[in-house]
Amino acid sequence: MNKTLPTLQDAVAGITDGATIMIGGFGGSGAPIEMVHALIDRFLQTGAPKNLTVVNNNAGNGHVGLAAMIEQGMVAKLICSFPRSADPRVFTERYLAGKIELELVPQGTLAERIRAGGAGIPAFYTPASFGTELAEGKPVEEFDGRSYVRERWLKADFALVKAHLGDTMGNLTFNKAARNFNPLMCMAATTTIVQVSQVVEPGTIDPEHVVTPGIFVQAVVEVANPAQEEDLNRANAHYPEVAA
Amino acid sequence: MSAKLSATQIAWRAAQEIADDAYVNLGIGLPEMVARFQPPGRQAIFHTENGILGFGEAPPAGEEDWDLINAGKKAVTLLPGTAFFHHADSFAMVRGGHLDMAILGAFEVAENGDLANWSTGPKGVPAVGGAMDLVHGAKQVVVITEHTTKDGKPKLVKRCSLPLTGVGCVTRVYTSLAVIDIQGGRFILREKLAAMSLEELQAVTGAELGVHGTVADLVVPEL
Q1: pLDDT bucket at B1, cuts 50 / 70 / 90
Q2: Longest CA span, chain A
Q3: Alpha carbon A225 to its chain's center
Q4: pLDDT mean over B156-160
Q5: Most buried one in A10, B26, B121, B213, CB count within 10 A?
Q6: Contact A128 B65 (CB under 8 A)
Q7: Residue to test with chain B: of A82, A133, A212, A229, most B Cβ within 10 A
Q8: Domains, chain B, ranges and CATH?
């Protein structure tokens, strides 16, 4: 078994118009910036993929990564919990102009919907959002004297995630808090594509330390020394680069 | 009304109530400051929604690791005994009753314990983050806030007018003027600034302040 791909171009080649894509990370931590940029390159060269639904905790920051995808007009709908950041202008302008749809989900509900999608659980009940406008239209049921809101699973055609080590069988470790949504998204997508800082041989990662087992991963591509969104934004980077 | 506590002093007052070894989540913004004012000899373990238990202070500028951030996306450091976990586990800690305390900010708190802290209405971009999860499950949900808005309107009200974060969830409020419990659908005044009369405090509060027994002076050091 060998799930590795030689290039980021190969990794994103199969993503189709209208797809639902989970993109890992919490802010910049754990965000697969290089893979998202490869997807933007493909869009600029071929016009595809577009009309995408993206699932992410946030809505991008600055003009790189997810924000750059939104800026190019590739994203029709965003499912997220917190569409604010240090520089949220790209999303904010499109949202207020009615050019992008937003489904706002409490953060823990978003995580659990993704987990449920990967675990084959079509719905679950949570106390979060009970009695608020985010629960409007959703079934409510009482358990042991407290009211809970029914929420549906969330699945995707593709997950684009970032991990630290990945072996050729797709077993993954993550770096510190860059784990966040990534292991959940690996479970919830038909095709999970992972950029890792280093590809290693099976057996290199101690089985006790595997965070995401390879069964949840379809493709692994190595991006050594990945960029951090925060560093790019502090350098006022744009993707693709714009002439000063 | 002249004197009131600074934001830092409100955070200090709230920090005095955190027990040694408590597991605590601090909301984004003002609540983050609470961690700096733990009394000597006490060490709470701080939880951040994005997946860390037991983080420490911010690193010096230039030494940030951007894979090591808190829910406010600020760089943090690690203390001995830290654990990392994914988001579903993180919110299992929140909703599952495993946190001792959540300390949150507020736009409005009502006498029935309702909290509004995520949306100022239909204009602009709505953002909720983990607030709707955090108000459920923590053994104590505490709010720290200015007593009034910048325009002088009460933030402690009879019923919230802004979109709710949670229903009947807040049990204590630390403000720039007072410490108030919420019990049985009422505000119960526990402490107030000595320089302020009960009538003056009531005048800037949007619902009746009940008094059970003595009201202590709210005493906070210069910070």
Answers
A1: very low
A2: 62
A3: 20
A4: 98
A5: B26
A6: no
A7: A82
A8: 7-217 (3.40.1080.10)
Backbone conformation region of residue B207, classed left if phi is above 0, alpha if psi is from -120 to 50, else beta: beta
Average pLDDT over residues A146-155: 98
Residues B101 and A169: their CA atoms lie apart, in Å, by 42
Count CB neighbours of A239 within 10 A. 20
| Sequence-distant (≥ 6) Cβ neighbours of residue B46 within 8 angstroms | B24, B25, B26, B35, B53, B54, B55
Chain B residues in contact with A124 (beta carbon < 8 A): none
pLDDT given for residue A230 in this prediction: 96
pLDDT in tens, A12-36: 999 999 999 999 999 999 999 999 9
Contact A132 B52 (CB under 8 A): no
Distance CA A164, CA A167 (A): 10
Q: In terms of CA atoms, which chain A residue is nearest residue B50?
A: A180
Closest CA–CA distance from residue B95 to any residue of chain A (Å)? 8
Q: What is the largest CA-CA distance in chain B?
A: 52
For A:96-155, CB contacts with B below 8 A are 96, 102, 104-112, 114-115, 126-134
Q: Which residues contact B62 (CB under 8 A, 6 or more apart)?
A: none
For residue A133, give both structure tokens: 């406008």
Interchain proximity B64–A29, CB inside 8 Å: no
Question: CA torsion angle for A69, A70, A76, A77 (degrees, to 10)?
Answer: 100
Q: What is the dihedral of CA B26, A187, A88, A237, to 10 degrees?
A: 110
Alpha carbon B5 to its chain centroid, in Å, reads 15
d(CA B24, CA B102): 6
Does residue B106 contact residue B116 with C-beta atoms inside 8 Å? Answer: yes
**Can you tell me the ipTM of this complex?**
0.96
Count, residues in chain A:
244
How many angstroms separate the CA atoms of A77 and A20, rounded?
9
